[in-house]
């Protein structure tokens, strides 16, 4: 392996969305830096199973239906 080709691998602190933290090794930042997560397995719906309810108030679905209403129907003429 060539020398000086890989970044430094050091310990950092990772802070989860609920405030809990743990120490791990990473190439992120400098030794002792803190990485604060916006999304993690404790808060993301893919892991929690809680889905966000999507309400369309005349928005994208209505716009789609209006734009593509005539597709699939042929006019005889």
Describe the protein's topology.
Blueprint: E1 10-15, E2 21-26, E3 34-36, H1 45-48, H2 60-67
Parallel strand pairs: 1-3
Antiparallel strand pairs: 1-2
Class inferred from helices and paired strands: alpha+beta
- Order of helix and strand elements from N to C terminus: EEEHH
Shape: elongated
Number of strands: 3
The number of helical segments is 2
The tally of structural domains comes to 1
Main beta-sheet strand count, sense and barrel state:
3 strands, mixed
Strand content: 15-25%
With strands numbered from the N-terminus, the spatial order across the biggest sheet is 2-1-3
State the separation between the terminal residues, measured CA to CA: 74 Å
Helix fraction bin: 10-25%
List keywords for this structure.
77 residues, three-stranded mixed β-sheet, alpha+beta, elongated, 2 helices
């Amino acid at each position: 392996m060539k020398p000086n080709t890989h970044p430094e691998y050091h310990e950092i602190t990772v802070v989860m969305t609920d405030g809990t933290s743990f120490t791990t090794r990473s190439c992120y930042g400098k030794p002792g830096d803190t990485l604060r997560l916006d999304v993690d397995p404790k808060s993301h719906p893919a892991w929690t199973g809680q889905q966000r309810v999507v309400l369309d108030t005349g928005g994208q679905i209505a716009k789609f239906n209006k734009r593509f209403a005539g597709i699939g129907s042929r006019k005889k003429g």
